[in-house]
Amino acid sequence: MSQLERASFGSKLGVILATAGSAVGLGNIWRFPYMTGQNGGAIFIIIYVFCILLLGIPCMISEFIIGRHGQANTARAFRIMSGDTIWSLIGYMGVLTGFLISGYYAVVSGWCLEYVWASLSGKLLGNPDYIQSYFVTFSQDPIKPVFWTFIILLATYIIIENGVRNGIEKASKLMMPILFILLLIIVVASCMLPNAEKGIEFLFKPDISKLNSDVFLAALGQSFYSLSIAMGCICTYASYYSKQTNLTASAVNISVIDFMVALLAGLIIFPAAFSVGVNPDSGPSLIFITLPNVFHQAFGNIASLGYIISVLFYTLLSMAALTSLMSLHEVSTAFLEEELGTTRKRAAMFVTIGSILVGTVCSLSLGPWQNFKLFDMTIFDLFDFVTGQLFLPIVGFLTCIFIGWYVPHKVVRDEFTNMGTLRNEHLFHSYIFLVKYVCPICILFIFLHQFGLL
């Protein structure tokens, strides 16, 4: 791929929607609602917005700067900016993190496809015990989850092999507007339910008594997870930005879209949950175990409406998963294409095969291989732990140190201000302060909190 091809997002809209698609995923529609439910509702959201401003946007801009400056895959971009020093290892670690996440993320994405099919065929009807047994039986099956993992990775491959403009950008321009339309349709239906105002109040009326250090640290962690920071995705996509792209404005726009999707997901789930008296802190099982029954009960008076809402919601969830999976796949595809000097199609095929193998192992570890454990964890849980609780905070922390303390400030300033053509010099000083001092400390707090050391 030539340097000219690299800066190949075709429009400002393409830049925003593609990168927002990378950030918008299961972290918004699956993780955000249950984290909000477990951490006090509105007060968590307020702290979360503060954390996006404090941590998310500066970290995203840092990855933008590295990716666009290097005009290369994440590993090579770090190598170029660091002058081929030991700092380039951060880039390789980012590529590895993106690949490992794509494997087990594809498994959960496959679950979303199964639930689209189950909704269409009317299988998600019954009492809560049936819904719970349905998920357990399906997730432990040796064939079905692997089949859906293969299907969603095949869809990802087809998009990625078509390149940046004809693959990623076209798919993002199609899927992101549809995603928003589906969100709005289901939000309206959910907010019109009896007692829905209790769920809306839970989201928008802060309860100061719920505020504690755990809420702060949970919000910090969610801002990191939700924006796809330290996975190589943001850095890789930025390598396709033109030199005229306003990095700060892009980061703000993407963060706003990301937050709006998360908030709209909350406006789907909590009004419906409160309408039928379901506890809002149901945890990670909320989407696949609690929610099908919530939809069935909430819209039970109009059978066809409950059916339609269920189908639309899991279609929405699958599309969000796919947009994120595209960016995770692209991290490794760009790396192999450039470092091995191979074709995009072949690189994408290698990554797809590798992701299918990782996904298969992760899926089987929840079923036939569930008794095989390392460090008292299944393979699926081990991948989640190593990437989410070790690699992401480490890569994020080192990236901030790298930009804030190692890279000459003139280089960072030139990228931040588009070689002085943007009048945002005052913002640059605030950004550097956050990246040098605030972001590393916040990430360190997250890291220590995850291991019970804080």
Structure notes:
The chain is mainly α and 454 residues long. It has 19 helices and no strands. Helix 8 packs across helix 15, helix 9 (164-191) runs parallel beside helix 13 and helix 14 (290-298) runs antiparallel to helix 15 (303-339). The longest helix has 37 residues, at 303-339. The radius of gyration is 21 Å and the shape is globular.
**Fraction in helix:** over 70%
- Ranges where pLDDT stays below 50 over 5 or more residues in a row are 1-5
Secondary structural class: mainly alpha
The DSSP helix count reads 19
Biggest beta-sheet profile: none
Order of helices and strands: HHHHHHHHHHHHHHHHHHH
**How many beta strands in the DSSP annotation?**
0
Q: What integer is the average pLDDT?
A: 89
* Rg for CA atoms: 21 Å
Distance between the termini: 46 Å
Q: Tell me, briefly, the overall form.
A: globular
Strand content: under 5%
Give a brief description.
With 454 residues, the chain is mostly helical. Helix content is 76%, strand content 0%.
Keywords:
454 residues, mainly alpha, disordered N terminus
Helices, strands, pairings?
Blueprint: H1 3-6, H2 12-23, H3 26-38, H4 42-70, H5 74-82, H6 89-120, H7 128-140, H8 144-161, H9 164-191, H10 196-204, H11 213-226, H12 233-238, H13 247-275, H14 290-298, H15 303-339, H16 344-364, H17 379-406, H18 409-416, H19 425-450
